[in-house]
Design brief:
With 456 residues, the chain is mostly helical. The chain has helices at residues 17-32, 51-64, 78-90, 101-113, 129-137, 195-205, 218-231, 261-266, 271-280, 293-299, 314-327, 330-339, 345-352, 361-370, 380-388, 399-411, 416-427, 435-442, 444-451; strands at residues 4-7, 36-41, 70-73, 94-97, 143-146, 163-168, 172-177, 185-187, 210-214, 237-241, 244-245, 310-311. The structure holds glutamic acid.
Length: 456
């Protein structure tokens, strides 16, 4: 079967860097193995799913360059879920329950008080026709639970330890004891489906062969492996990566605004810095900037993903962004620089690219080069002497050295006392790109004016 992976977000909020990591790992696996990548919107929760979130997720993925080969929406597939639910009901694997949330809560509290695990007691399996008729007459609607295969026979219904095992792509041999779980609710009272079931039907119907997702889904996988069996399908391969945590070690939440992809984009970070960071964090590869997704795909190996929690730091991401900018050629950024009004591109890019955290920082350096700026004057006499020592044009990268040697010879200044006042006067800044690269870009006329303390 052709390799196929998917990213299956619930469009109930913006996605953050942790969700993007899941998407990227699945994407890289697909591309590495010549497979397909499916985008699936898990939007069966009608109240919380919003089309604007689905649009935002698509925008974010497109920005990252994760091109999907196919797109599906669970809300378009309800007829199929109804059909499969009927089959599971007929097979006795889906059964109706009438307890209210309050009743279930009280049950759980009683169990806990007696030192018992709060597992659903399967009382609904022994309801008589009369009980059901009574509930229906009261206007109660059933929710439906999946009967886990965790008893040696249909009676008794008390679960016994039952291991579901799989060979996890990331974690190796895994086991979930489905004898310690409640039968999961798959259909709510209002008839809407829970993701646990719909995901299995989709993965089967749409030919998904591998699923890489967060380790918060491990218990789900135990249940879903049984669901695949119940519908007569072969389960795909699963890999569970550790979750990305914030710098404080806490889970990234969907509502963590500043780490949403939209916010990272608005902060001016490069998509490939985000992709590189998300792809390589928590793996045995060094976190280096990659210019293309293809080069990350070449490097990708699911076995390199570590099981230890990966900590995300915004500072590291910004550092990686700076590193990426440094590797970009002028051609890579020419259009965007021109849009900022940078006209004298190539030499300028070479001078400043190592000093940028985000690309738009180039704008400030362009102002330094093309003016006007307010020079910072520490010692007017010294600068006047320096001005008379200025070499004639044309200027190049050696001019700075020639000039400062001359100034040194005439004034006796050296080291910081020589260079710093010149930098302050010519750029108005304490630090920045190499002066030998900036000097010819600023040009002789402006240099003369700035050395006199004039705005230029
Ligand atoms: N919609 C599910 C989620 O966002 C997908 C989980 C999965 O990958 O199976 O948690």
């Amino acid at each position: 079967m052709a390799t196929k992976l998917r990213f299956a977000p619930s469009p109930t909020g913006l996605i953050h860097i942790g969700n993007a990591r899941t998407a990227i790992l699945n994407y890289l696996y697909a591309r590495k193995h010549g497979g397909e990548f499916l985008l699936r919107m898990d939007d069966t929760d009608l109240e919380r799913s919003k089309p604007e979130f689905a649009d935002a997720i698509e925008r974010d993925l497109a920005w990252l360059g994760l091109n999907w080969d196919q797109k599906e929406r669970q809300s378009d597939r309800i007829a199929r879920y109804l059909e499969m639910a009927e089959k599971l009901k007929a097979a006795g694997r889906l059964y109706p329950c009438y307890e209210t949330a309050d009743e279930l809560d009280r049950k759980r509290k009683r169990q806990l008080a007696r030192g018992m695990p709060p597992i659903y007691d399967r009382k609904a399996l022994s309801l008589s026709r009369d009980d059901v008729a009574k509930f229906e007459a009261e206007g109660r609607k059933p929710h439906w639970r999946f009967r886990l295969a965790n008893t040696p026979s249909d009676t008794p219904v008390e679960p016994v330890a039952t291991q579901v095992t799989w060979d996890d792509l990331v974690r190796g041999a895994q086991m979930v004891d489905v004898g310690s779980l409640s039968d999961p609710v798959l259909i709510r009272e209002d008839g809407t489906f829970l993701y646990t079931l719909t995901s299995v039907i989709d993965d089967w119907d749409l030919g998904v062969t591998h699923i890489i997702r967060g380790d918060d889904h491990i218990t789900n996988t135990g249940v879903q492996v049984q669901l695949f069996e119940a519908v007569g399908a072969k389960a795909p391969a699963f890999g569970h990566h550790s979750l990305l945590t914030a710098a404080d070690g806490k889970a990234l939440s969907k509502r963590l605004g500043s780490l949403s992809l939209a916010s990272l984009r608005e902060q001016g970070l490069e998509a490939m810095a985000v992709v590189s960071h998300a792809a390589l964090i928590g793996t045995s590869d060094a976190i280096e900037p990659h210019k293309t997704i293809e080069s990350l795909a070449e490097l990708f190996d699911v076995g390199k993903i570590s099981t230890a929690p990966a900590r995300f730091s915004e500072d590291e991401l910004r550092g990686l962004n700076a590193k990426l900018l440094h590797t970009l050629s002028y051609g890579d950024v020419a259009e965007r620089l021109q849009a900022m009004g940078v006209t004298d591109g190539e030499a300028f890019w070479q001078a400043v690219s190592g000093n940028l955290e985000i690309l738009s920082d180039a704008q400030a350096w362009w102002s330094v080069v093309s003016g006007p700026i307010t020079p910072v004057i520490e010692n007017a006499d010294f600068l006047a002497k320096a001005s008379t020592a200025l070499p004639a044009t044309p200027w190049d990268q050696d001019t700075w050295k020639t000039w400062t040697n001359q100034v040194k010879a005439e004034t006796g200044a050296k080291g910081r006392a020589l260079f710093h006042p010149l930098r302050l006067a010519l750029t108005g800044q304490e630090s920045g790109p190499e002066m030998k690269a900036l000097l010819p870009l600023i040009g002789r006329d402006r240099v003369v004016q700035r050395l006199q303390g004039e705005q230029a």
